[in-house]
Amino acid sequence: MANSGKAIPTSVVKRLTRYLTEVQALREAEVEWVSSQELAETLGLTSSTVRQDLSHVDFSGISRRGYRIDGLERVLVDVLGVDTTWNTVVVGAGNLGRALALHHEFSHRGFNICGIFDSDPKKVGVKVGRLAVKGMRELPTVVGEQNVQIGIIAVPDDAAQSVGDLLIASGIHGLLNLSLAHIVAPAGVAVTDSRVVASLLELAHAIKYRR
């Protein structure tokens, strides 16, 4: 049984995505059951954390057996919203944007990248896999016609807010911000920051002090 509608803490949601990836791998390997201890050992967690996390999705294991893989996968897919296809666009056709548009794992996880955009006239028309880079003026039309729900911002920091504003005005419901800039958005638009450089700085700090 999926979550009844209560908000799940962000830290738990992050771990639920890891559980789903592991459960899908186990299902592909034809494994039928997994225990909280096995999930914990694989993902570097404690078994109590796994049990507490899964209590948020109202899915219980069976004593001495654990969790049935197919049932757990269905519940996680439902709670995380990956049981439907999310049409997505990438703004920024630089190295990062092109890499994202070419990443096959997106479609495998239910995210259909249906457009890549850039303000540089030299990049417009260039093929990126099955897509051709489009100019920014075409963005609102594509978002509307293809019912795009998610926009990925892969532009320099100083352009991130204006790109976010255009995506929001075009009807986007969620933004994945890959820049270091803070994106201001109305309450009805979800924004998630994925900052590679900041994460590397955190990693460098962790390595330094563990030494």
Task: Give a description of the structure.
The chain has 211 residues and is of the alpha/beta class. The chain folds into two domains: 10-80, Arc Repressor Mutant, subunit A (Orthogonal Bundle); 86-198, NAD(P)-binding Rossmann-like Domain (Rossmann fold). It contains nine helices and ten strands. A six-stranded parallel beta sheet has the order 7-4-3-8-9-10, sandwiched between helices. Strands 1-2 form a two-stranded antiparallel sheet. Helix 2 crosses helix 3 and helix 7 (139-145) packs across helix 8 (157-170). The protein is globular. The mean pLDDT is 91.
Q: Give me the Rg, rounded.
A: 20 Å
Number of strands: 10
Provide the spatial order of strands within the biggest beta sheet.
7-4-3-8-9-10
Superfamily (CATH H level) name of the largest domain: NAD(P)-binding Rossmann-like Domain
Q: Strand-residue fraction?
A: 15-25%
Query: H/E order of the elements?
Result: HEHHEHEHHEEEEHEHEEH
Under the CATH scheme, which class of the largest domain? Answer: Alpha Beta
The name CATH uses for the topology of the largest domain is: Rossmann fold
State the secondary-structure class.
Answer: alpha/beta
Helicity range of the residues? Answer: 40-55%
Q: Mean pLDDT, nearest integer?
A: 91
Largest sheet: number of strands, sense, barrel closure: 6 strands, parallel
Low-confidence stretches: none
CATH architecture of the largest domain: 3-Layer(aba) Sandwich
Number of domains: 2
